[in-house]
Design a protein that fits this description.
Blueprint: E1 3-7, E2 11-13, E3 18-25, E4 33-39, E5 46-52, E6 58-60, E7 68-73, E8 78-83, E9 92-99, H1 103-106, E10 120-125
Parallel strand pairs: 2-10
Antiparallel strand pairs: 1-3, 3-8, 4-5, 4-9, 5-6, 7-8, 9-10
Length: 126
């Protein structure tokens, strides 16, 4: 049973930095990608960034390029999302997800597909 557990979300001020973690367990993740998505109140879930477990290929949404960095630590089965220069519009519940696919294709993952974590709340105050 694949499990994804996000952590690191909290209340921060605009301009601050925050690092989210996604700890994965339950299988070998060769040829899988891990993605971060976010959902703001009243809005649809949107793609943020993705990385492949094996090659470390990355893909980002235009809205976060240059501010967010996704990375992985294979020995810990953990993926990180380093978020810098946070803005109030970054406020959302952040979810991680994993799927057997590429980093770019991860951006099109549906919420009805496996596997998703339960999310961690990031609030950016102005």
């Amino acid at each position: 049973q694949v499990q994804l557990v996000e952590s690191g979300g909290r209340l921060v001020q605009a301009g601050a930095s925050l690092r989210l973690s996604c700890a994965a367990s339950g299988r070998a993740f060769i040829n899988y990608a891990v993605g971060w998505f976010r959902q703001a109140p009243g809005k649809e879930r949107e793609f943020v960034a993705a990385i492949t477990w094996s090659g470390g290929n990355t893909y980002y949404a235009d809205s976060v390029k240059g501010r967010f960095t996704i990375s992985r630590e294979n020995a810990k089965n953990t993926v990180y999302l380093q978020m810098n220069s946070l803005k109030p519009e970054d406020t959302a519940v952040y979810y991680c997800a994993t799927k057997w696919t590429t980093a770019q294709a991860m951006s099109r993952m549906s919420i009805t597909e496996d596997y998703w974590g339960k999310g961690t709340l990031v609030t950016v105050s102005s």
